[in-house]
Amino acid sequence: MKYIGKPIDLEKYTLHDQIRKGLYEYIAINSDLFKDRKKHNKLYLKRTIWTEDTHISEFLGFLLGRKNGFKVCESELYKAPLLNNKFDYGVISYEETSENDTLILPRSIIKDFLENQNSDKEIYNGVDIDTIMASIFFYMNENRRPYQEFLDFKQDFINMMLYDLKYMNPDRRLNNWFIREDKKTGQVDLYPMFDNEMILGFDYDLQGNRLSEESLDEEDSKRKSAVLLPKDFMLGKSESDYKEFMKYLLKKYPVQTQKAFNQVSNVTSQYLEEVLSDIEDIRKGRIERSVQLFNKREEELNKIYEQYKKYEKTI
């Protein structure tokens, strides 16, 4: 096995907080590590207490994002011995901040933007992608950030959208992504992706090893986008159809979307199966189910993209 779980190194980290049941925050003992975002100065341990395999999917989400060349928080598998030859399982997710960084929930930035525009839009569980882009542009402009910084954010955000579409993540709600701001330099960017454990159906318990064609279609269609289309935001919906969302991205953000699509395309069914097979203690039925779901979603997205390219970018 290539990917094997390990315990927390308690010589390097101390428990700082139990955020909720099964979720623990650890802080590095060496304060010098906080000078660099990539020094693993803080981590979160998510113990597997809700479904059997979500520690695997969070780790898998990191591997897939890294393969795509996207910004994603680094993760490792957790495994610690218990009594009677049993083990405690989970995932270690490293925070990527330095002592100068502040993480900002997007809800506050979006709310300020809507108030500035005298908008009567209400923020519930989701916001449309155009409002998100306009809000971040407004925030960066107010803070006199260079325009290239906004363009970098736009590409990173579209990358995250294609990641969620490709790997069937329905949970990119307003508390599942951050804005990162360096208080020393003023730089603003999209914080690397985290909380990816709902990809490829991992949040569902296995019921048999294979999906029927009918249930495969049904499960694919249920995996919608938590970031909304403008029309769905106006109607107060909490999610948007993923196919319509993909079409909208190609129309409204064609340059960024085509670039992101090409990057997610470097993860193939064969690559996914090989990676899953290299993960310790994964069940064969889980591998088969995830690969089936991946193939179905890839087929549907490729149809949309080919239609877009064929008919002179009109879909």
Describe the structure.
A five-stranded antiparallel β-sheet has the order 1-2-3-5-4, covered by helices on one side. Strands 6-7-8 form a three-stranded antiparallel β-sheet. Helix content is 42%, strand content 15%. It is of the alpha+beta class. The relative contact order is 0.14. It is built from ten helices and eight strands. It folds into two domains: 13-94; 101-310, Phosphatidylinositol 3-kinase Catalytic Subunit, Chain A, Domain 5 (Orthogonal Bundle).
List the helices and strands and how they pair.
Layout lengths: L12 E8 L2 E6 L13 E6 L6 H15 L6 E7 L5 E8 L6 E4 L1 H11 L12 H14 L4 H20 L12 E4 L5 E3 L22 H10 L7 H5 L7 H11 L1 H11 L4 H9 L6 H27 L5
Antiparallel strand pairs: 1-2, 2-3, 3-5, 4-5, 6-7, 7-8
Helix pairs in contact: 2-3, 3-4, 4-8, 5-10, 7-8, 7-10, 9-10
**Which strand order does the major sheet show?**
1-2-3-5-4
Strand content: 5-15%
Shape: globular
Radius of gyration, in Å, reads 20 Å
The tally of domains stands at 2
Secondary structure tally, helices: 10
Distance between the termini: 44 Å
Number of strands: 8
CATH architecture of the largest domain: Orthogonal Bundle
Order of helices and strands: EEEHEEEHHHEEHHHHHH
By CATH, the topology of the largest domain is Phosphatidylinositol 3-kinase Catalytic Subunit, Chain A, Domain 5
Stretches where pLDDT is under 50 for at least 5 consecutive residues are none
Structural class: alpha+beta
Report mean pLDDT, rounded to a whole number.
92
Portion of residues in helices?
40-55%
